[in-house]
Amino acid sequence: MSQYDVIIIGAGPGGYVSAIRCAQLGLKTAIVEGRETLGGTCLNVGCIPSKALLHATHMLHEAEHNFANMGLKGKTQSVDWTQMKSYKDEVVGQNTSGVEFLMKKNKIDWIKGYGSIPATGKVTVGDTTYETKNIVIASGSVPSSLPGVEIDEKVVVTSTGALELGKVPKKMVVIGAGVIGLELGSVYQRLGSEVTVVEYMDAVCPGMDKDVQRTFKRILEKQGLKFIMGAAVSGVEATKTKAKVKYALKKSPDAEEVLDADVVLVATGRKPYSEGLGLDALGIKMTERGQIAVDNHWATNVPGIYAIGDVIEGPMLAHKAEDEGMAVAEVLAGKHGHVNYGVIPGVVYTTPEVATVGQTEDALKAEGRKIKVGKFSFMGNARAKAIGQADGFVKLIADAETDRVLGAAIIGPAAGDMIHEICVAMEFGASAQDVALTCHAHPTYSEAMREAALACGDGSIHA
Ligand code: NAI
Question: Closest residue (by CA) to atom 6 of ligand 1?
Answer without folding.
Answer: 176
